[in-house]
Amino acid sequence: MEARLRLMSRPAAGHLVIAGLLASLVLAGCGSSEAVKQVTAEDRFKHAKALFDDKEYLEAISEFNVITVQDQGSAFAADAQFYLAESRFMRGEYLLSAFEYNVLRRSYPASPRLPESQYKIALSYYNLSPGWPLDQQYTKKAIDEFQSFVEYFPKNSLVPDADAKIKELNGRLAGKEYQTARLYSTMEYYRAALMSYEEVIEKYHDTEFAPLAFQGKIELLISRNHYREAGTEIDRFLTRYPNSVLKSRMESLKQTADGQIAAGHNVDSNAPPKPILPAEAPQP
């Protein structure tokens, strides 16, 4: 009888042990949840900022992300979004940094971080901009964003730097178009070459490539016996760039064009100019 009672009590004792363990786990879980809840947005931001200051950018990104998701309405959300973008920028992740700065621009338009964020959007694209032989889509984006910065924050101390970078980036676009014109000319797509030269002259008139584009256009016109048009372009060049290092070259080309006109070339229908070929040309 006693043995039977002992056999019956063993499962009951086991159930008691299991129940005790479950109760302990529940209490531990509750304690852990309370500890998590006690981490405020301010505490998390201070921790994330310390990671950022220590250049632990990947860990900082994780912490700033938590704030932007869980504490969007807190006083630290805008700064967390800014430093999230800064962390991406410092890691050289410029597409991601541009995206994150743009989130701040859209979500926190009253933030005092807005001017710097606008500038950093532009700077992110600037850092992605390649040399002029390559595709220039990021160059154009950087110019647009720098121009927006100058327009919306004209008194900001970074405006002179933005202006300088706009000029530099326009130079890259001008160089790209100028080399395209030269390539068209070499391939004998003369009309396309003239159009590209003219785009450099008008759109990028304040770059080093504009005078060179004038020269290329004028020499191409003369080579095709378009002397009168060449003479007009030379006069246009001398008016726009009276002190250019190319002045003597232009004056020499002017003499050539005037001499050919005086000799009766390219004047009447009996001496037609060499044709300028159609503009259709493959992309370089």
Summarize the structure in words.
By secondary structure, the chain is mainly α. Among the domains are: 1-38; 129-284, Tetratricopeptide repeat domain (Serine Threonine Protein Phosphatase 5, Tetratricopeptide repeat). Helix content is 74%, strand content 0%. It is elongated and about 95 Å long. The model is unreliable at 1-28, 30-36 and 267-273 (pLDDT under 50).
Describe the structure concisely for a colleague:
By secondary structure, the protein is mainly α. 74% of the residues lie in helices and 0% in strands.
Shape: elongated
**What CATH first level of the domain at 129-284 would be assigned?**
Mainly Alpha
Please identify which CATH superfamily of the domain at 129-284 we are dealing with. Answer: Tetratricopeptide repeat domain
String of helices and strands: HHHHHHHHHHHH
The total strand number stands at: 0
Distance between the termini: 101 Å
CA radius of gyration: 35 Å
Helical segment count: 12
Which CATH architecture of the domain at 129-284? Answer: Alpha Horseshoe
Content of β-strand? under 5%
Q: What structural class do the secondary elements suggest?
A: mainly alpha
CATH topology of the domain at 129-284: Serine Threonine Protein Phosphatase 5, Tetratricopeptide repeat
**Main pleated-sheet profile:** none
Poorly predicted tracts of residues: 1-28, 30-36, 267-273
Q: Give the % helix.
A: over 70%
Mean pLDDT: 86
